[in-house]
Design brief:
Elements (H helix, E strand, L loop, with lengths): L1 E2 L3 H6 L7 E5 L6 E4 L5 E8 L2 E7 L5 H18 L14 H16 L5 H9 L13 H13 L6 H17 L1
Parallel strand pairs: 1-2
Antiparallel strand pairs: 2-3, 3-4, 4-5
Amino acid sequence: MSSALNKRIVLTAEPKDRPYELRDAQFRGLFLRVQSSGRKAWPVTWAHGKRRTLGSVDHLTLDQARDQARQAVAEYVQSGLPALAQSKPTSCTLEALLNDHFEPWAIAELKGGRQYPGRIRSVCPWLLRRQIIEIDVPTMECWWRGRITGPDAVTKATAARLCLPAVCLVSCS
């Protein structure tokens, strides 16, 4: 339901058995979402099925929510994705990612999963201290070319077996 939201409506919106939303008639894309627990929040939508919550009613006033919603929609129009929807780049090293996430997952989910983290550590020791966001396709291509054409050259199949876990790990993070 669309209504001209104001301070009184926001404060008096009562929780019901199920969560519900009140659309703002003044700014299309802004909602007041009232949870059955009584929590109220400001979601914004900028395209079909694309939405994020700006914050709770306790932390944002109606005018602040409208301003942030306008900014999010303007960013979507200019660049295709608002800043609040962009993922934050991880700032951990490859070794931290291996230890904290990949190794436990590989052991639990992959047949012979204990070998993959060790293989990555032995094949790419020079990458372990690098930040994940610094490891890119040109870096891996340089490694690949050096591995199949260098003094200790291996076949492409061997290089693929050695490189694939590292490339998958880095590209998925």
